[in-house]
Amino acid sequence: MNKGRFAVPAAVTDWVTAVGVAALLLGTGLSGPHPAGGHQLVGTALLAAGGLALAARRRAPLAVLAVTGLCAVGYLGAGFEALSVPYLIAVYGAVRAGRRTAALAASAGLLAVLHLTALLLREGSAREVVAQARSTLELAWLIAAFAAGEAVRQAERRADEAERTREETARRRADEERLRIARELHDSLTHQISVIKVQSEVAVHVARRRGERVPEALLAIQEAGREASRELRATLEALRDDGTTPPHGLEHIPDLVQRFQGLGLAATLMVEGRPHAVPAAVGRTAYRIVQESLTNVARHAAATTASVRIDYRPDALAIRVDDDGKATLHPVPTSGLGLLGMRERVTALGGRLHTEPRSTGGFTVQAELPTTGTS
Fold it and tell me: What pTM was estimated for this model as a whole?
């Protein structure tokens, strides 16, 4: 556990590393063979610049790779002999960032340029010149920097994959828990609500047969029992979507509209835009929105017509359901579990849901579901 540890900002770490490497490079270069006069000033500046460039290695790994390589060529040509530690660190950073090809090509080119610079600008035999170039960029150290960067990159990728796996496992366990709760709700609540519903209906039936006045409270219990039974059935259906039956999607909406037409509702379906494949979660949510909207129309709105419009957009799927029921501008219908369930489904996908009475009478349900980045 590292909750109590002090976290150092990455920018501070980068600057500390850059200043430390610059100081190390200056100490190495000035303590060994080096020129005097103007060449010394130029070489010293390049030694410092190569180290300080590492402060930007996280933000611009390729640019830092180029700068440190040019600085190494420059101070070698000026007469300094020092291992280019900044370039090795830049190679490590570039490979860690996934720029292996660029790092490999830059390193191969730098090795050739260093040898050519030593041959042209440094004095001595060919063996001495090659040794001077190798002292600036040793091949073994270069391979080690590549290996270290690749090892860290692979480790970070495995860590990210493990994190995704943990999230998927947690999501699967949550789904299993929802299914278990749904089954328990079914066992514990459905029976009790059914008993209340049956008893109230029997009491109303007996009172009417005797010619007695049915109490308003009893009628309210009867209606509440029917409504609770319907809402519980719809809620449990959503919770128990465990994959045992094929989930409904966009392709099932025409059949759904046709079923409501058979119940006496003049329902129509219009499809706009160019149909294209959408994520399964979007298709399921679109079906549930249309299903719940038409169910509410048939139960509560006393409507004769309803229209369903599905609009395929490049990055979203828009659904609109209108009816000509009794809703008006002023009284707002009570949001039951159906509307809450629709809103939760749409919000979970990062979409938007809008419900309101229409100015010409009736009610409208509009939803916009993003189809990019949705699983």
Answer: 0.47
Rounded to 10 degrees, the C-alpha dihedral 58/62/68/69 comes to: 160
Non-local CB neighbours of 161 within 8 Å, separated by 6+ positions: none
C-alpha torsion sign, points 64, 132, 47, 139: positive
- In this predicted model, which residue has the larger pLDDT, 332 or 372? 372
Strand partners, 321: 308, 365
Tracing tokens 């440094």 back to the chain, one arrives at 122
CA dist., res. 189 & res. 319, Å (int)? 33
pLDDT of the residue at 57: 85
SS3 state of residue 208: helix
Torsion of CA 228, 233, 237, 238, to 10 degrees: -10
Burial class (CB in 10 A: 0-12, 13-18, 19+), 148: middle
Confidence of residue 365 (pLDDT cuts 50, 70, 90): very high
DSSP label of 297: I
Token pair for 224: 């509440």
> What pLDDT was estimated at residue 292?
85
CA distance 320 to 366: 4
Q: What is the mean pLDDT of residues 152-174?
A: 84
Distance from C-alpha of 299 to C-alpha of 217, rounded to nearest angstrom = 22
Q: Which residues pair with 319 in a beta bridge?
A: 310, 367
Residue 190 φ then ψ, to 5°: -60, -45
Nearest 10 degrees: CA dihedral of 272, 274, 279, 283? 30
C-alpha gyration radius of the chain: 36
Beta bridge partners of 309: 270, 320
CA–CA dist 234, 41 (Å, integer): 81
